[in-house]
Amino acid sequence: MITILAFARYRALLGFERLELPCVPTLGALLEDVRFAKLPKDALLAVNQAFADRSAKLGDGDEIALMPPVSGG
């Protein structure tokens, strides 16, 4: 199983804060699931607390974080 965490506005957009799913081979494969259809392409993605792109390999027990881009000044 993998754990997906949605942060900030993505919680309301995706309808969950924490979700557990069976493991898939890559982050891109995970994001093809219909539950992530509303996730913007510019979402920040992390695997086990390290930024990752959609080609990142996933393994059992991984934690995926979905975060909106941030800006500040």
Number of strands: 5
Distance between the termini: 39 Å
Low-pLDDT stretches: none
What is the CA-atom radius of gyration, in angstroms?
12 Å
Named at the architecture level, the CATH assignment is: Roll
> What's the number of helices?
2
CATH topology (level 3) name: Ubiquitin-like (UB roll)
Q: How are the strands ordered across the major sheet?
A: 2-1-5-3-4
Order of helices and strands: EHEHEEE
- Helix share, percent: 10-25%
How much beta, percentage-wise? 25-35%
Main sheet makeup: 5 strands, mixed
CATH superfamily: Beta-grasp domain
How is this structure best summarized?
The chain is of the alpha+beta class and 73 residues long. It is built from two helices and five strands.
For the structure shown, list the relevant keywords.
single chain; 73 residues; alpha+beta; 5 strands
Report what the structure shows.
There is one protein chain. The protein is an alpha+beta fold and 73 residues long. The chain has a single domain (2-67), classed as Beta-grasp domain (Ubiquitin-like (UB roll), Roll). It has helices spanning 9-14, 27-31; strands at 2-6, 18-21, 44-47, 50-51, 63-67. A 5-stranded mixed beta sheet has the order 2-1-5-3-4.
How would you summarize the topology of this molecule?
Layout: E1 2-6, H1 9-14, E2 18-21, H2 27-31, E3 44-47, E4 50-51, E5 63-67
